[in-house]
Amino acid sequence: MGDFMMMEEEHPTHKINISVASPDSTFTTPNSKTPMSPTQRLRYLLSSPSRYIQRKFQAGGLKGSMLTILASTVGAGILSLPYVVNISGLYQGIVLFILGMIVSLYTCQLLVLAAEKTGKLTYESIGNELFGHKMRTFAEVNMIINNYGTVIAYLVLLKDLVPNCLKLFGVDNAFATSSYMWGCMICTIIVYPLSLKQEISALRYTSLLSCFACIYLGIAIIYGFFSMRSGETSSRFDEAPATELSAYSIFTAAGYVVFSFTCHPNVIPIYQELQRRSTKRGFKFLSRGLIIVLFLYLIVGIFGFLTFYKEYHPITDFPTQILQAKYHKGDVPIIIASMAIAITVLCGTPLLVHPCRDATLSILYQRRPTKKQYFLVVTIEVFSALGLALVIPNIGYVLNVLGTISNPIICFILPCMYYIKAFPGKYTRKDLFIAYLVLVIMTLIGISGFIMFWIELFS
Q1: Which of 56, 398, 447, 451 is deepest in the core (most CB within 10 A)?
Q2: Rounded CA gap, 283 and 277, in Å?
Q3: Regarding the domain delimited by 59-458, which CATH topology (the fold level of the hierarchy) does it fall under?
Q4: How confident is the model at residue 2 (pLDDT cuts 50, 70, 90)?
């Protein structure tokens, strides 16, 4: 993910910024205000695609904000969506994705309203304005848990994804495909040095790269389905289990879905940069961006599931990240997808360490930390995350815990609490009733999912 540099004196958070100077307007030639013809646009796109994208998707414009929320939402969690459909059933999984998008959009809108009412730019400052210093600290702690947990998830993914990519190339050497070796080497040589730097602005576009990698993943998975299951595509749809109605399937899948739709820490800064800012325009870029996310998630979840659900029995044997499924050696589209996602996750991991580090330093030290304190906090956070990543068997464990602890708090509980406090009244008022209802339901889902995770772990 990239990062916004906000004007308010707050702790930096990891967000993407696609910025150019000019306002959102009719597309024109670089040196003229005359609108381009379709032919001129095509020539300009081919001659300078990066400049075209910058001008077309500007920060503050609806398209630019939509692209930013898209890049902020889509991440490594997309790899686990076929597993979600597998444990839920085809149609139950689709319903969960749609409900996840609707509730995520609703709570993002609550954040926009709370930010507009308080005039604050971050989770922490809104909490401080509405509830006081304790809520600010509570929000900071949850941001630390969320970022630290995601760092662990990314290291788990990298230690497994790189060896799997080599195996698809046909490499069988045990040392060369050792997940422990790759985890230690990636963390020590790349992640740790970058995490020590106070500014890593060169990586600010990694969220956008990750978004493009995930879009390519969707294309590759569709290709894999039709190439590997040609002649049986209809039967795959007809014979796929429709639902898996059990506490395990519902609450476990809900944790993954919650994690996958986490974009809330980025919503307020994106909204603050919106040109001609209004809640109506804010709701517009949020709805468009999250609908595109939903479409991408449905593609990856459905086609990844349909490709392999017959090959894994029972349902819990389905791989928690789809690139570890039984694709053929030398499958070029899947190899490219593995490499692309591995690179973007590798570049994005230090960006998750930075806000976690800054929030930790803020809680531990009242004054500006010394170099020794700074070095100690970064070292402990990075290598403790590596230690946990090496003993955790797959990314699903981390995503499930995050999806039942910190993500429900960040995505649903705090936005509802903020709205209820910012717009007080009787709970019977329609908007407050809905906010209270979402607050209660998502709290129960988070607690139930966490209990189910530990029951499964020790059963």
Answers
A1: 398
A2: 11
A3: Amino acid/polyamine transporter I (1.20.1740)
A4: very low
